[in-house]
Amino acid sequence: METYVVKIDNPGPLPTADCSYWLRRTAWTGSVERADRFATIEAAQAALDRAKPFTKPKLFRKAAIVAAD
């Protein structure tokens, strides 16, 4: 059964800095192991909608629902 996670790619100030953050409840974590897993894309979208008030708009637009590895 495939699961999904919500991811934000936020490039840092340096060109070599690649920062990915994963949704954990209404906060973002730097570790995919700590991220919440969702059974459906709809459940992931609902969680992302709950996190919207706590996420900067510029970063929120970069959020994507991806299949968990």
Provide a descriptive summary of the structure in words.
By secondary structure, the protein is α+β, with helices and mostly antiparallel strands. The protein has one domain. 22% of the residues lie in helices and 32% in strands. A 4-stranded antiparallel beta sheet has the order 3-2-1-4, covered by helices on one side. A hairpin with a 6-residue loop joins strand 1 and strand 2.
What would a concise description of this structure say?
The protein has one domain. It is built from two helices and four strands. The protein has helices spanning 41-51, 57-60; strands at 4-11, 18-24, 27-29, 64-67.
Supply the key terms:
69 residues, 4-stranded antiparallel β-sheet, globular, alpha+beta
Produce the secondary structure layout:
Layout: E1 4-11, E2 18-24, E3 27-29, H1 41-51, H2 57-60, E4 64-67
Antiparallel strand pairs: 1-2, 1-4, 2-3
The portion of residues forming beta strands comes to 25-35%
Helical proportion, percent range: 10-25%
Number of domain modules:
1
Largest sheet: 4 strands, antiparallel
Helix- and strand-based class?
alpha+beta
**Integer average pLDDT:** 91
Shape: globular
* Helix count from the secondary structure assignment: 2
Report how far apart the termini are: 12 Å
Task: List segments where confidence is low: pLDDT < 50 over at least 5 consecutive residues.
Answer: none
- How many runs of DSSP E, i.e. beta strands? 4
Helix-strand pattern, N to C?
EEEHHE
